[in-house]
């Protein structure tokens, strides 16, 4: 994405993670919605335009990989950032299938803000995050 990020969707089954991301992103001036799981997220993307989606990998009802696939089918513009407590096969598979990148929990808020700046500038997300390579 080369351009401004206006609307963001945070998808995570853990309320404290959703609340933290939403609070930080709103404080930084973004319009942010949240979903408790992948099924809810897909419905929200179907009904609205999002520039960026933070999507947890491990969720009940529908995992993040299937959620990412469906969101990418519904939206040509939304960039997906997969989130997880540890980068595993699902996160890496999602990236191979078109997700824009992934970051590890717990989030470093400085790194999160840098990530958003890099996306807005259209820069590559191949970086080190929490000691893990994103390439």
Keywords:
135 residues, alpha/beta, Rossmann fold, five-stranded parallel β-sheet, two-stranded antiparallel ribbon, disordered C terminus
Task: Describe this protein's structure.
This protein is α/β, with parallel strands linked by helices. The protein has a single domain, classed as 3-Layer(aba) Sandwich (Rossmann fold). The chain has 5 helices and 7 strands, in the order βαβαβαβαβαββ. The strands form 2 sheets. The protein has a 5-stranded parallel β-sheet with strand order 2-1-3-4-5, sandwiched between helices. A two-stranded antiparallel sheet has the order 6-7. Helix 3 packs parallel to helix 4. The radius of gyration is 13 Å and the shape is globular.
Tell me briefly what this model is.
Helices cover 41% and strands 21% of the residues.
Domain count: the total is: 1
Low-pLDDT segments, ≥5 res? 127-135
Largest sheet entry: 5 strands, parallel
* Total strands: 7
Q: Under CATH, the topology is which? A: Rossmann fold
Give the SSE map:
Blueprint: E1 7-11, H1 15-27, E2 31-35, H2 38-47, E3 52-56, H3 64-74, E4 79-84, H4 89-96, E5 101-104, H5 109-121, E6 128-129, E7 132-133
Parallel strand pairs: 1-2, 1-3, 3-4, 4-5
Antiparallel strand pairs: 6-7
